[in-house]
Protein: Formate dehydrogenase protein FdhE
Organism: Pyrobaculum neutrophilum
Amino acid sequence: MEPLYRALCGEDQECLREARETPRFLSELDQIARGLEIHVDRPGQYAVESVDVERLRREAEGRGVPRQLVDYVVRRALYFRFGSGGVGGRCKNCGDPASLIVLRREDLGIYERHRPYARCICGSEWEFELWRCPNCGASGRDSFDVYIYGGVHIYSCRKCGYRFGVVEDRPDLHTTHFYIHMLRWTLPNPRPWQ
Ligand SMILES: [Zn+2]
Ligand SMILES: [Zn+2]
């Protein structure tokens, strides 16, 4: 996580200290999400379409809670209730394209390979392809600029500009994803890798 924290904070020690608290902060938000009652009024293509997110945002903003946090907790609540899956290449809960590709090692006896899964910030995953833009579908290595922060790669689609992370599966996957999801638009561009 450290390269990501440093990309965000530079040498600002206060910022770094807060960044290192993120896992605890996220598990507290998960407790709230698990307790949130989600009323699904009408069936939609994506679960979030059935939730009155605007009302929840207004209620939370009245108590000083930023709407980004509300959106995040609602997404987690949908995931805890409905689980994983993609519809038409997007998250079945949130209706958004993946913001992370997770590479999972698969042991096939004679050799190993990495199988790519698309992941939404809510936690939902579905099978996907590497070198394919989750937003516009552009594919092939030539379609992307790649930036590297430690073990985290950020791909930037040359066709639509969409940014997403690519990582190998890791114990702190969700915290890593949270950072990538938040930071992918603000991360400075280091030298492209290719
Ligand atoms: Zn989702
Ligand atoms: Zn694209």
Notes: Strands lie at 86-87, 90-91, 100-107, 112-119, 125-127, 144-149, 152-157, 163-168. The mean pLDDT is 88. The first strand starts at residue 86 and ends at 87.
